[in-house]
Amino acid sequence: MHTELTQACSQDTGAQRAKAIIGSCVHCGFCLATCPTYQILGSELDSPRGRIYLIKQMLEGAPASRVTATHLDRCLTCRACETTCPSGVQYGELLDIGREMVDAQPIRGAGERLLRGALAVGLSNRAAFSAALRAGQWLRPLLPKALAQRIPARARTTLTPRARHPRRMLVLQGCVQPALAPNINAAAARVLERLGVSLVTVKEETCCGALSHHLGALKRALEQARRNIDAWMPLLDTGVEAIVMTASGCGVMVKDYGRMLAHDPRYAARAERVSQATRDLAEILSAADVARIASRSGDGPPRRIAWQSPCTLQHGQKLVGKVEPLLKAAGFTLTPVRDPHLCCGSAGTYSILQRALAVRLRSVKLATLEEAAPQLIATANIGCLQHLAAAAAVPVKHWIELIDEASTT
């Protein structure tokens, strides 16, 4: 697919990169079969191929319109199309460039810009989000039922073991996860503690930048990436083995720091080092590790589990089939799930900004997850967990919590 850049675009590195990505698309349409929004809406403009054409038109001089913004906003950035594409089109990277072009023009109204800015700032600020959530939980009994159902109940805080092993790994605390599900990182620390590894944190870190990035606030996202690099590098220099991600959405973002900051002379090398050191928690554990610490008594958590692989794990990080052996080694039975490649509809702020579509996608996903009557649904990302739990007929937990509960003390 050939693109004729305008004179202004020809001087822009982002536009040049977009042209190269578009040039790898052969217009085959394979992506349509795995695109969640195309499956629901049936519109070519709500498919990867259609969105590529919209971005191509902007690069060739067509002004971005409300139509352009609408269809790019409807994309979940699930990247299932990348998994399917026979030509290796880097659609996720192209979409980021397209969204940045849209947000550079005065298309959005003041209210919309205010909401998106508030989400980028509020959700990525751990203290602010925690305070807002606690206020919502306190007011929950007084709120209308429809609104109250969207506010999760307060999660119990569990003990995190003190760091005492020579082997150390750094764990990203996250921005919303500590308030929504503090047991996830605590469970990860307990499991690794049993394997002779201590998880450590640094208070200077911030949000990974994914929320800002997908809202088009690229400058803010890069500032957050640089702050994290500055916070983490001293620990890498003193022997920390890896930077562990318990949320797959954060993992795919931090693993991309090297590419995103490749043209920053001050940060390029360090960003690449951070990306290379980053591991999803599933990459740290092996089935043999889990089998060694798991209890075979049959007591403990439910044993029939439906596994929901987040898009950021299977399509973003390409870690298909990493968690399932760990759950099986801990004694769980995995129920069959149809169409495991399809998105649940969470997708960061998508479930807020595209509520109707997110609910439809969730209904489809829950129907497939609950079809074989599991006792519990397991996932690997805090956004998916909260989105599914709000409507699921069975509990939804992070997979490391199940490994922790099935492990001997």
* Shape assignment: globular
CATH architecture of the largest domain: 3-Layer(aba) Sandwich
Radius of gyration (Å): 21 Å
Instruction: Assign the structural class, choosing from mainly alpha, mainly beta, alpha/beta, alpha+beta, or little secondary structure.
Output: alpha/beta
User: Mean pLDDT, rounded to whole units?
Assistant: 91
Structural domain count: 4
Report on this model:
The protein contains 25 helices and eight strands. It has helices spanning 7-10, 13-23, 36-41, 48-59, 66-73, 80-84, 91-103, 110-122, 126-139, 145-148, 177-180, 183-194, 210-214, 218-237, 248-254, 257-260, 268-277, 281-284, 287-293, 311-316, 324-329, 350-353, 355-369, 382-389, 399-406, and strands at residues 168-171, 198-200, 243-245, 278-280, 304-307, 333-334, 376-379, 396-398. The strands form two sheets. It has a four-stranded parallel sheet. The longest helix has 20 residues, at 218-237.
Characteristic terms for this protein:
409 residues, alpha/beta, Fumarate Reductase Iron-sulfur Protein, Chain B, domain 2, Rossmann fold, 4 domains, four-stranded parallel sheet, 25 helices, 6% strand, globular
Write a brief structural summary.
By secondary structure, this protein is of the alpha/beta class. Helices cover 51% and strands 6% of the residues. It folds into 4 domains: 97 residues, Fumarate Reductase Iron-sulfur Protein, Chain B, domain 2; 39 residues, no CATH class; 117 residues, Rossmann fold, CATH 3.40.50; 111 residues, Rossmann fold.
